[in-house]
Amino acid sequence: MCASFMDRFFKPKPYIVESVPPPSISHGAGMVIPEYKVKPYFIVASVEMGNTTTKCILTGTNLETGHTYIINKTVKMSRDVRPPKPGEDVFGATLDGTQLTRESVTELVRDTLIQCHKDAGLSIQTDLDFVVRSTGVVAAMDSPDQVGDFVIALANGCLAAGVPPKKMTPPMSKENLTKKLQAHSFADKVVFVGAVAGVIPPLGSSGVEMVANEMEGELAMAGIKEGAKGTPVDFRNPCISIDFGTTLDGRITSDVPAGDPNPFARTIGNFCGLAGAVPDAIVRGTGQVEGRTGTALDMFGDQSVTEGLSRIGRSASIVENYVRRIHSHIDIRIVPPDRERFGRVPVSSKVAHDSGVALIGCDVGVNGSETGELNTIGAEIYEKYGRGVLVDVIDHVCAEMALRLIDITSEQGMVPENSSIGFTGRAAISGRKPQYILNGIAERGYYKDPQNHVVFVDDGLARGAALMGRCMNSLGKPKNPLGGVRGGPCIMARRIKIGK
């Protein structure tokens, strides 16, 4: 009894990477200037339109150290996008049914991008180096390739904000880079072949993407790799990256044998389906948020909790019972080859199956058909036990979702001892979810020292955008590599050899 009680205090704490602003430099007489104003920084705008939020996050990477910081963040609710005007074609919708047109998306992205730069005191034309666009709005699309239409609308928003087209595509040569970047680029030694952070994206034999939010999965993986640099966790290949935004995305990457002439890992697994949409459905039954567009973010925020005990105390059995009830409606498994959607996300599951890529999905019923049941359970919890129990139920539900995904990954033989597991997204890094997830991984015995194999990273997509921009411009850091395998050296020399 005593040992069990004390274990609650001495369980290993999860590594949680939170975004910090760039350091400042003092010039005397009280004058303080942000470091990115005087040192060589690679400034990237991550433009993300998701089902819940639309963001422009400005990241700055110090090219001398390789450290990435968050310069500014502008966040708007996607539900606040203006309604379609007469004559506009509705080409998609968010998970809550908010209708989207190319024009309305363009305007929202434009305004968000301009506001973010204005608040940071930066110029889009002269200070910004690169823009990366991504979207998780895939629920109303018929197939993965239709995401391209949405990305075009995002691009139009960037252009309308004044972003030069050359800042959205890789340079043709080192000479095309600004003088500031040329000194730190290896573009004259290596060729960008599409690999981001040492991983080749998955494509079927026909070149069809296997899941609609493929790019989000790539950015999340890259962002977790970058964020983990601030921890003792060596989050290089092989790795499992999971993004618990409103929808689920992420990747599983392969190991790379030391003697393999190809230094890049392969993508051997993908995640898809619903993630943050599950706690959203639970809180919508409480009456404390709007019934159609309200989110758990509205009710609880997105901060992690690392200190103190669980708030439920004697209510553990009550929480466990509700977690079981909710998970009876959650379907987590390998997506069958005959499914064209899973968790409302368009997938090419047969292509994944034929290509040997594990497509692991999370659904509520069939394509969200049982979210109404989660509304009802949420209402019952809040009415009987109040906010405290509801919070802990949600934290345990999300942690159990994460652990079930890892269990399926393990069953596929994709959690070797030299792998690492990383999470980003509000439904994995807020509240006490990180601690519950780490506890579950430790109990499963995947690693001798689980704390040094698991990491939680804030703003994964924005960090991934910064890293993708660096990869496209060959702005590597051989002394502090992101590519390669856990515990291994930089792969720059092998890339140069391949190029020759």
Write the layout of secondary structure elements.
Blueprint lengths: L1 H9 L4 E3 L6 E3 L5 E3 L6 E9 L3 E10 L5 E10 L12 E4 L5 E3 H19 L9 E6 L11 H14 L18 H4 L16 E2 L13 H15 L10 E6 L2 E7 L11 E10 L2 H7 L12 H5 L15 H12 L2 E5 L6 E2 L2 E2 L2 H7 L2 E7 L6 H41 L8 E5 L1 H4 L3 H12 L9 E4 L2 H13 L19 H8 L1
Parallel strand pairs: 1-19, 4-9, 10-13, 11-18, 13-17, 18-19
Antiparallel strand pairs: 2-3, 4-5, 5-6, 7-8, 11-12, 12-13, 14-17, 15-16
Helix pairs in contact: 2-3, 5-13, 6-10, 8-10, 10-12
- Classify the secondary structure makeup into a structural class: alpha/beta
How far apart are the termini?
A: 64 Å
The residue-averaged pLDDT reads 89
Number of helices: 14
The major β-sheet equals: 9 strands, mixed
The Rg value, from CA coordinates, equals 22 Å
Low-confidence stretches: 1-6
Question: What percentage of amino acids are in beta strands?
Answer: 15-25%
Give the total of beta strands.
19
The dominant shape is: globular
Helical proportion, percent range: 25-40%
